[in-house]
Backbone:
């Protein structure tokens, strides 16, 4: 078995980080087998090196090695690219074409950004992994292929599975062995080493003296977050090598080439909603309607007390909290409002007595019948208006209402719209 150090030299890998060494060791160990491998890590950490190691150290090293960027191929043509198509299968298919799985028979396919694959393509890929079979687009003939698949992604696969953007069964097929590459910020001791390697390469390429960093500049280099990882470090090294006349780089000069990423201090985010925190217009409207209904019930209660006692001052004293709730801090208006409510006692000639056969509180029932604050009706009205504004487009209407398209469809069926 080839040593880790020999593998690094062979494939131009720089660094002595323990996690990096473990990733290379796993690649060396799994290479002689035909096990599917999933390489994970942030964008720019060098995931493309692992499938090359696996291919070159395997018995397939004399076969084809094809790297496919799944995120760069349009959804409409990716099946044709991977599995091929028959002549006349779709517009523009003027001849039969072999796909990558057919061409790479006996070799290795590296599927970069596999998390971007459409769900329909994922089903086809699952079949290849299970029994090595695939069908060309526009064909009914099953073909066989003997391909080793190594995939890579910077997507959190468990989140993608939870959001139903990636099939769980395909994930477990691809990740028989998972190799994780650490981000550059976790490889502090390798940052300066990589930077010196890149500047040396660019000095040779552009035929100019190699740049050097001052001690203060090295501190800045090591403290920077490097969100773009090795790719970003390489780009910065190339910019400085080409643009700077002075080949000794100070901390201030280096800082000018590093994008400001803001503070890296941790922030506490409260993900729980308060009871009064309404996320959309519909919920705010419901809150207003409920408050109005509560105020009406309070007014009914206050009116009833006035009609029973007939004494405004006593009612005001006994129901001070209720009056404060309804009228707020408008103290001067409280007595006048209560006198208006008790007008029935002061001017009995304006009111007709209720028939004896009726309940003496029949007027309360009449108020209840005249109330038109129905949440059902309001919701129906909101849905109608939203659909009208968007010409019946459910997706846009659902977004405006703050509900899912499926929920909106269910309500449309419920209300028979």
Residues:
């Amino acid at each position: 078995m080839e040593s880790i150090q020999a593998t690094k030299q062979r494939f131009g890998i720089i660094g002595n980080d323990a996690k990096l060494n473990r990733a290379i060791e796993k690649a060396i160990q799994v290479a002689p087998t035909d096990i599917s491998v999933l390489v994970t890590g942030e964008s720019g950490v060098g995931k493309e090196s692992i499938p090359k190691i696996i291919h070159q150290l395997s018995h397939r090293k004399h076969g084809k090695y094809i790297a496919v960027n799944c995120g760069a191929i349009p959804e409409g043509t990716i099946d044709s690219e991977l599995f091929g198509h028959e002549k006349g299968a779709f517009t523009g298919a003027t001849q039969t074409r072999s796909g990558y799985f057919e061409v790479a028979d006996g070799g290795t396919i590296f599927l970069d950004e596999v998390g971007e694959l459409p769900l329909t393509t994922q089903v086809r890929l699952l079949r290849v992994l299970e029994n090595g079979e695939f069908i060309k687009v526009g064909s009914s003939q099953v073909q066989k292929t003997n391909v080793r698949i190594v995939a890579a992604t910077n997507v959190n696969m468990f989140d993608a599975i939870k959001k139903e953007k990636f099939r769980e069964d395909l994930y477990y097929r691809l990740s028989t062995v998972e190799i994780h590459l650490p981000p550059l910020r976790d490889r502090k001791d390798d940052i300066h080493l990589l930077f010196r390697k890149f500047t040396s390469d660019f000095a040779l390429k552009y035929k100019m003296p190699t740049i050097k960093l001052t001690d203060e500049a090295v501190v800045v280099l090591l403290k920077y977050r490097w969100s773009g990882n090795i790719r970003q470090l390489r780009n910065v090294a190339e910019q400085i090598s080409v643009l700077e006349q002075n080949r000794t780089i100070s901390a201030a000069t280096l800082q000018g080439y590093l994008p400001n990423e803001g503070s890296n201090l941790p922030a506490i985010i409260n993900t729980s909603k308060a009871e009064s925190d309404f996320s959309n217009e519909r919920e705010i409207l419901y809150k207003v309607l409920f408050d109005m209904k509560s105020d009406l019930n309070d007014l009914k209660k206050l009116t009833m007390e006035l009609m029973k006692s007939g004494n405004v001052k006593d009612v005001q004293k006994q129901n001070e909290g209720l009056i404060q709730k309804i009228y707020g801090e408008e103290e001067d208006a409280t007595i006048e409002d209560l006198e208006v409510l008790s007008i029935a006692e002061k001017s009995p000639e304006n009111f007709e007595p209720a028939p004896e056969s009726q309940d003496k509180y029949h007027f309360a029932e009449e108020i209840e019948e005249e109330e038109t604050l129905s949440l059902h009706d309001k919701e129906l009205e909101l849905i109608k208006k939203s659909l009208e504004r968007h010409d019946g487009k459910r997706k846009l209407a659902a977004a405006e209402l703050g509900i899912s398209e499926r929920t909106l469809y269910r309500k449309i069926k419920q209300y028979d719209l």
About this structure: The radius of gyration is 36 Å. Residues 236 and 257 are 7 Å apart (CA to CA). Residues 281-309 form the longest helix (29 residues). DSSP finds 21 helices and eleven strands in the chain.
